[in-house]
Amino acid sequence: MRARIPLIHGPTPIVRSKALSSMLGVELYIKRDDTTGGAEAGNKLRKLEFLLGDAIDRRATCVITCGGTQSNHARATAIAAAGLGLRCILFLRMGDAEGRPEHIGNMLLDRLVGAEIRPTTAQEYRDRTRIMTDAAHALEDAGERPYLIQEGGSNGLGALGYVEAMRETRLQLDHGIAGGGIAFDVIAHACGSGGTAAGTVLGAGESDVAAQVWSFAVSDNRHHFEQIIARIIDEARALDPSLTREARLVVDDGAKGPAYAVMSEEQRAFLVRVARTSGILLDPSYTGKAMFGLAQAVARGAIPRGARVLFLHTGGLPGLLAQGPNFEGVL
Ligand SMILES: *Cc1c(COP(=O)(O)O)cnc(C)c1O
């Protein structure tokens, strides 16, 4: 058994949204992984149960990770690390369109829990693995025991968090939630670093939760993510060879918008419409683009009308709160 520490408040609810079902034209259920916790909530916390479990197992004193200035992963890691008494160092890519390097949104929370932020230029960030490894060596020399977590917590170990999420969903189906034991036709979610996709593909296959997983890319193209997800799937299987089955993966890069964390006008208006129709708050970097992509896939007939769809709401509220000025024109 792998070391896993309890961080999430689960099982997270699965809710049927009548309003969004009619807006999108599918039978839409939402798994509220935006409620995996308090301020630390979101999909990253499921990966961190395994990653920080491993860190504690190895007697780490300090965790190192990276992301954009408004990284949800960096914030979840910082808060969870503070709760475990671990020092946390974050390499954050400055100059992103998503937010100024100010104490707002995720970065405010990072600072509140005492994470050490090391600002990184976009150029330096390309070498993030080397930069983090160098920092780890320097910390070792200073007597710390550092534990390095890759971008988004996306490796084979982190992906096991979504294998677990699918086991949790299977139990919910068996208890009669979301129409009884029948599997979903499609699981839809936002894809940023590939770990959620890899774990969901393996878990949905293992636990018979859905035939297909639609991963909506929020930045890079389909080919890029297909390769990354395949690698993470291999890593997860090396850790747990019993994961032989997989759901069919569809990477859709048609809704990635103008740039990472930047929405088109149409996408922004969609996010506002979803909020006003359903009370479901999506974020501009991930979930807003994924649900927009889902709506488009149904509209063009790639996902059949009336399909049973489970949308993974992966969180991201602090990032939305950091983008207030971008919404002035549409409110
Ligand atoms: C990180 C993140 C994702 C993407 O998950 P990956 O495992 O990195 O692909 C989706 N939604 C939100 C809100 C996230 O923070």
From TrEMBL:
Keywords: Pyridoxal phosphate
InterPro entries, per the entry: ACCD_DCysDesulf, D-Cys_desShydrase, TrpB-like_PALP, TrpB-like_PALP_sf
Domain Tryptophan synthase beta chain-like PALP: from-to ranges: 7-315
Domain of life: Bacteria
Pfam families (UniProt xref): PALP
Cofactor names: pyridoxal 5'-phosphate
Keyword Zinc: no
Assigned protein family: Belongs to the ACC deaminase/D-cysteine desulfhydrase family.
Name of the protein in its database record: D-cysteine desulfhydrase family protein
